[in-house]
Every structure is written in C-alpha cells, then in structure tokens.
Design goal:
This protein has 121 residues and is mostly beta strands. It has no helices and eleven strands.
C-alpha cells in the first residue's frame, strides 16, 4: 500500500487560510481517488474533497467554494488549499488513496496519520 504523510496543519483565526499537503511514497498518477477527510472533535468523519485520476474534483457542501484540492503527479503530492476558514473546520484532516471507491471509511485504501487544524473565532 502507498504510504501517505500529511503536513501543513496549524492554528489560525477565522477567515484565514491554510494549505495542507499529502506526500505519497509512490506514484499517484494511477490512483483513481485521492481525497481529504475531515474528522471533527466529536470524531465524525466527512470526505470534504476528492480528486480523481481523470482530473475531476468534488467537494462537500460544507467546503464548496472555500477549499480547493489539487494533485501534482510529478511530485506525488495532493494539496488542499483551505480559504475563509471557519471554527467548524477544526479537526484532523486525513489524506486517502483509494482505487475502487471513495469513502471516509479508514478501512478502505491507504490513509495518512492526519494533520490537526484549529480555527479560532
């Protein structure tokens, strides 16, 4: 399985931005689904951004218009640009690599250890 390592989390004020990165141990060009999943302080998980190998992207309603996922196959890295952050964006953000389906279920595919994002009001 591909090894994933997230970085870029931190503590910011509401309205500020962060850029998360997910570095993969091998080529991601053929991985169908690369995603970012948010786990809130109550441990609820939601896949908030998805990048498919054909170039399409998708977002949850909670982040649409504020977050942007991008995939750099030359660097084997996926990014999540997070703008206009809100306190409800607080939580752990996990990167995932999945081939057959995209899901917030951590038993499916490969997952990183996560990076903490804290947004203060």
């Amino acid at each position: 399985q591909v090894h994933l390592e997230e970085s870029g989390g931190g503590s910011v004020q509401a309205g500020e931005s962060l850029r998360l990165a997910c570095a993969a141990s091998e080529s991601i060009s053929s991985i169908k689904y690369m995603g970012w999943t948010h786990q809130d302080p109550g441990n609820q998980r939601e896949m908030v951004a998805l990048s498919t190998s054909d170039g399409t992207t998708d977002y949850s309603d909670s982040v649409k218009g504020r977050f942007t996922i991008s995939r750099d196959n030359t660097k084997n890295t996926v990014y999540l640009q997070m703008n206009s952050l809100k306190p409800e964006d607080t939580g752990i953000y996990f990167c995932s690599a999945q081939q057959h389906e995209h899901t917030a279920d951590e038993s499916i595919g490969s997952w990183g250890q996560g990076t903490q994002v804290t947004v203060s009001s």
